[in-house]
Structure formats: C-alpha cells, structure tokens
Amino acid sequence: MHSPRQRPPVTGTRTALDRAESALIGQYGDLTRLAYLTLPVSLGRHRRVLLAHGIVQRALPGVRGRLPAPRRPEAGGDGAGAPVSEGRRLRQHVVRAALARERRPRGWPAALPPPGTLLPGLPLVWGLRLFPAAGGAEDMALGRLLATAPAEARAAFLLLRLDGLPVAEVREVLTGAGVRDPEGALRAADELGSAVGEQAERLLRSREFDACFVQTRPTDLLRRRRRLWCAWGTLAALVGFLALWALPGPGQDPSPAGAGTDARAGVPVPGPRQLTRTPADVWADTSRVDFTAWPARGDRVDDHGLLSRALSVWARPPRSVRPAVAPDTPAEPPTRSPQLLYAGEVEGRAVVLFHDVQRIVRYSEPLTSGTPSLAIARADDADVTTAAAVVVARGRGTVRFLTAPWIAGAETRDLLRPDSPARRLRVAPDGVTGTVPAPAARTACDSVPVLQLRSSARIVEKHAFLLSDLGGLSPVHLTYTPLPGTGTGAPPSRQPREATGAPALVAWARLGCGLREVRGSGVRAVNVWDFAAQDLPEHGGRSVWSCVRASTWRGPGDVVVRWRTPDASAPARVVARARSTAACSRFGQHVVAGTRWRAGSGHWYVLAAGSRAVSRIEVAGDVTESRAGRTLAVRTPEKSRTRVTVSGVLTNGDKLMEIGRDG
Q1: Residue 353: which H helix or E strand, with range?
Q2: Number of other residues whose CB lies within 10 A of the CB of residue 491
Q3: Distance CA 104, CA 96 (A)
Q4: Selection from 561, 577, 487 nearest residue 527 by Cα
Q5: SS3 202
Q6: How big is the CA angle at 558 (ends 555 and 563), to the nearest 5 degrees?
Q7: Distance between CA atoms of 248 and 254, rounded to whole angstroms?
Q8: What is the 3-state secondary structure (H, E, C) of 538-570?
Q9: Residue partners of 463: CB distance under 8 A and separation at least 6
C-alpha cells in the first residue's frame, strides 16, 4: 500500500507565500517596467500596460504555494541570498512571460498577432484606454531605439542598466527565462547601452516608460454605442436563426443554406460609418499631442460617397492610380478603422486625409473629371511639431497645408534671408493655409521658403518652430543646437532647440540650400549642430564646424559635416558624409572631422575640430601631428599630394575616428 504524498507544512507554505508577495510588492514598479519594455512594441501602449501588470501579478506561486527554485542556486550558502534568489525568480518569470507573448507557433498566420496576445487576462479595463504619460524628445528617441532592438536585448539592457545586476546574474536570469542565446542578448544590450549613453537610467525611470503611472481616456463613445447595438442585433438574429433551424420542414435540409459570407479577396474595406472621428476639443486636454488629437475637419466630412471612394482606392488601388509611397512606408490596406482628419475641396480637387496610427494617407480627386491620386507616408511617433501640419494640396510652384488644431498663428519666411521679417500666412477656419511658395527642387537655390508656426497657449509646449516642405506629406521640422557655452547663459546642452532665434537663423542661412539633398527621402527632422568654432591661421578669421543630421521616421539618419568660413556670402563646404548612422544625435554625441584650407598667402593647412568631449586631435598620413584641445591647424605641402586621416581622443581615453571625408 502506497503511503500518501507528504504536503509541505502549512506554516512554511504561508511564510514562503508571504515572502514572495513582499518581494513582488516591493519590486512591483521595476518589474512592471521590465515587462512593459520587453513586450512587443506592436501591441500598442494600452495593451502593453495591461499585459505588463498581468504578467507581474501572475508571478506569485500557484495555489498550493510551492515556490519554484531558480534554475541555478545562489552562490554561497549562508542563507543571505534568499532575497536575491526570490528577486531573480520574479525577474525570470517576468522576462519569460514577456518573451512568450512574441513567440509564434510553427505555421501560425503572419497576419494574426502572436497567440499569447489574443486571450485577455486580468486586469481587464472596459471603456477606457490606458497609456503612460508622454515624455520629452529624449524619452521618445530612446523609445524608438528600444523598439528596434530584439526583446531579449531589451530585457538584458534593462536588467543591466536599470536594476544594476552584474553580468553573471543577468546571464542566469536570461537562461532561467528560456533565452536560447543569452550571450548574444548581452552583446546586443551592450551595443544598445553604448548608443544610449550615460543618461539611460535617468531616461528609463521617466514617466514615458512607467506602466504604473498611467493616464486614462475614454474609447470612441459613438463607436462603442454602435458596437453595443450591433452586438444586440447580432444576438437577436442568431436567436432567430437557431429557432428556425430547430424547426425544419418535411424534407428540408437542416443546414443553413445561403449563409452570408464575404467572397471578396483581401481585407474588407471599412466604410465611412466606421471611421474614427476625434472630438474637436480633445487636443486641449490630452498629454498626447499628435495626429490622434486632430478632429475631422472640412466641408465634406459627411460626404459618404467621397469617403467610400477614398477608402476603396486606398484598400485596392485601380490600375489608373499609382500610389506615391514614402520610403520605408508600408502600403497595405488599413487593418483597422482609420481616423478621418479632413475631407474638403482645395485647389479644385476633393481631398481626404486619413491617419491609421502609423501612416498619413491623402486621397485626392478632381472635381470634374480626371484620375485620382493617393499618397502614403509614415507618421508614427509624431509630436506637437511633426504633427503640426500636413500638405493638403500642391499647385505649380506652390503648396497648401492643413495645420493642427493647436496652431495659433502661421507665418512664412525665407531661410536664406535671416534679417527679413516673417510674413503672416492666412489660415482658414478649417485649418487650410493660403498658398506658400514651394522650395525649388532643381533650379538655382536663391530662396528657401519655410513655415513658422506658433502653438496655442492651451498646450504645455507653447513655442514657435520652423517646418520645411521637402516633397512629403508632412513638412520637416528644423532645429538648431548652438556651440557649447553660447546662448542665454544656461548650462550647455546637446538638446536641439527651435531654429527661430537669431543664431539659428544665421546658421541655417548658410546651410538651407543643402535641404534639397534629402528631398523625398522620408525625413522627419533636420538639426544643425554647431559642434566647434576655430580661429584660422594667419589671421584668417573664425570658422564654424556644423553637423547637419537628417533623421528619418524609421530612426536612422544621414549626416553631413559642413565647414563655414568667415565669408558670410560663401556657402558652407561639405567635408564629410555618413549614411544610416546614429552620429550627431542623442545616441552619437561625439564627432571629429577635418578638411584642407588655403590661406590668403597661398599656404595650405590641414584643419580639424572635435566636439565638446574631445581632448586631443591627431593627424596621420603625409602630415603627422598630435595636439591637445578640440581644434588643430597644421601647415601641409601641396594640396594635391596631401593625404591625411584625422582622429580624436575623448576625455575618457576612447579613440574617435573621423566621419568619412568627401574628396
């Protein structure tokens, strides 16, 4: 006769459960942040918040109170490792559960989300949307960088930089969580940490990534009401159908003949009644000031015929319509009911603008006869500036914009003439501006018109900013980072500023013609960073080194280093280029570059300069020189025979190579 299995003592079980609950409550915020940032970004902020809380709350042991031990025992056996062991068990559970949400079984349809995200779990929220508070530009940049990294790398990065765990313990947590290649995850986390810099811990603890500090907004109330009536109608129809099916006539086939199915190929086209329409005053009472806060405007927002044609062409463009799709922008039909931004008549055409979280779509058709047009561009992670205006129509050498509801004033100015005052731009009540000259794409660069917008006092970030039309649906945000130690006397900062002040306008006047080089390349913002100033030899005056970074909607950007001579009438010289790089951004804060220059006497010099953290500059090749400081000027032989490479040494001793030099 078999003896019954012995159960653990009730007292020991209760103590273990109490210890587990105390550890979970004490680390609840950090564990929820770990789960929130490890979960797939594609789930959206509301879904990730709920899943993160559910994962952490299910980290307690099972109903019988048995506590699974870590995959590896703690080093040492003095009993002092018990809290560490419990903390490791909790982290293993959180990382394992968050990674499991992204795994797809073999043969799982790619169009469907992972199965781990389909079934709802506690906590559940009905009728409300939850999302963390919006952060600043630095937080948004870090969020975009984290989104590009694998989930295992994000988890390792958070354990290292946020929880401060040693590498060995992080390796054990990843192994216990079922990560197949923990070493690869640690290497990726190391690269991620190098890109983020020393501010990672401060940024990660901001409210942008805190799933415990959330804001609430109602879901679409009208859509909720329609869905409720639709559910009741469907239920009534189902009851009636079952009643008829239960009473078949003599010889009648009891199967439901002629059941209504949609035999069309592809995704069903949403109708005008299913479009999302944001109330008019949401933008003034939300922390998320972007396209989701735009109300539906225009005198044809209720024209269901126009809206149906626009949705149909977007879902299945006919052969006569060739969509203009911005770089790295998906062109597939909408997967959910898009948001209606505008429907009206502009420049003799009917125009409809949609937004579907990640994209802006513009449909346009002639009022009389002709071929419609369709344009699609990325708009994910837009903010108060990059969601401030959309190109609604183009004419011959002109462009008209639809401005955001938070825009209180609009002006135009010529970027090449900083001393000329801005001119007032007329804006209609529905947000459509008057005509603005479009920058010339191929002719001589004698004018670069830009928009100067001013945000309303009803939002937190009340300021003026510049936007430039570079051929896309959304104009490009222009910013400026001044030389270290210049400005208002505040401590030097690498944070870009709005390009509306006098120093910024003077700098952009020498660099504005370079904007045409990134026209039509999916750029969201261009920043000019004056990283060094240098006095030229032989009393040649003062020159300025600038790094011009064009950041794309997908994250990476192209960099051009330009050198401005004291001659204000001369264009800036291009001395270096780099494509798809993090250089000259928040995650690439150091740069060194060099060029050749001929003095008035005819002597040639090699010039080099570095950013603020450069402590020494070295030149090697036909000329060899090493000097302490951030600038260097050394005389060289004839220009055509001088070949050198420039490098810098940072204050921490690291070596910094120059960006690939032109010519």
Answers
A1: strand 349-355
A2: 7
A3: 14
A4: 561
A5: helix
A6: 140
A7: 6
A8: CCCCEEEEEEEEEEECCCCEEEEEEEECCCCCC
A9: 454, 455, 498
Is 103:114 a contact under the CB 8 Å cutoff? Answer: yes
To which residue do tokens 């929130």 refer? 36
Which burial class, exposed, middle or buried, applies to 91 when counting CB atoms under 10 A from its CB (0-12, 13-18, 19+)? buried
Kindly tell me the sign of the dihedral angle through the C-alpha atoms of 190, 196, 199, 202.
negative
SS3 485: coil
Q: What is the DSSP string of 498-511?
A: ETTSHHHHHHHHHH
- Residue whose entry in the numeric block shows the structure tokens 């709802």: 120
Q: Are 438 and 398 in contact (CB under 8 A)?
A: yes
Q: Are 405 and 442 in contact (CB under 8 A)?
A: no
The CA–CA distances, whole Å, from 362 to 271, 402, 450, 452 equal 17, 12, 22, 23
Which CA distances in Å does 566 have to 212, 502, 573? 53, 17, 12
pLDDT of residue 51: 85
Distance CA 648, CA 615 (A): 7
Please state, in angstroms and rounded to a whole number, the distance separating the CA atoms of residues 452 and 498. Answer: 10
- Classify residue 198 as exposed, middle or buried by CB count within 10 Å of its CB (0-12, 13-18, 19+): exposed
Tokens standing for 13? 């079980």
Q: In whole angstroms, what is the distance from residue 81 CA to residue 376 CA? A: 56
> What string of DSSP letters covers 30-74?
HHHHHHHHHS-GGG-HHHHHHHHHHHHHTTS--TT---PPPSSPP
* Mean pLDDT confidence for 50-64: 73
Token pair belonging to 633: 């000027």
Q: Give the Cβ contact number of residue 561 at 10 Å.
A: 31
Instruction: Return the structure tokens found at 188.
Output: 């990726």
C-alpha 568/C-alpha 565 separation (Å) is 7
Contact criterion met (CB below 8 Å) for 47 and 125:
no
What residue type is assigned to position 44 of the chain?
G
- For the stretch 397-450, pLDDT in tens is 899 999 999 999 999 999 999 999 999 999 999 999 999 998 876 677 889 999
* pLDDT the model gives residue 388: 94
Q: What is the DSSP letter of 483?
A: P
CA distance 431 to 382: 18
Specify the length of the chain in residues.
Answer: 663
Distance of CA 77 to the CA centre of its chain: 47
The dihedral formed by the CA atoms of 119, 55, 175 and 104, expressed in degrees to the nearest 10: 20
Nearest-angstrom CA–CA distance, 389 and 639: 48
Alpha-helical runs (H) found in 162-207: 167-176, 182-196, 200-204
- For residue 653, with 0-12 CB atoms within 10 Å meaning exposed, 13-18 middle and 19 or more buried, which class applies? exposed
Token pair for 430: 């529905």
Q: Which residues contact 153 (CB under 8 A, 6 or more apart)?
A: 185, 188, 189, 192
Whole-Å CA distances, 495 to 68, 141, 386, 453, 492 = 47, 12, 17, 20, 9
pLDDT score recorded for residue 220: 52
Coil, helix or strand at residue 537: coil
The tens digit of pLDDT for each residue in 531-571 reads: 999 999 999 999 999 999 999 888 788 999 999 999 888 88
- Nearest CA-CA partner of 379 in 371, 370, 367, 388: 388
Task: Give the Cβ contact number of residue 254 at 10 Å.
Answer: 11
C-alpha to C-alpha distance for 314 and 365, rounded to whole angstroms: 13
Determine the 3-state secondary structure of 278 from DSSP: strand
Q: What is residue 313's predicted lDDT score, i.e. its pLDDT?
A: 93
Site of tokens 């909720």: 224
245-273: pLDDT as tens digits: 554 343 333 333 322 223 334 456 788 98
What is the pairing mode between strands 423-424 and 436-437? unpaired
Checking if the pLDDT of 502 tops 60, the result is: yes
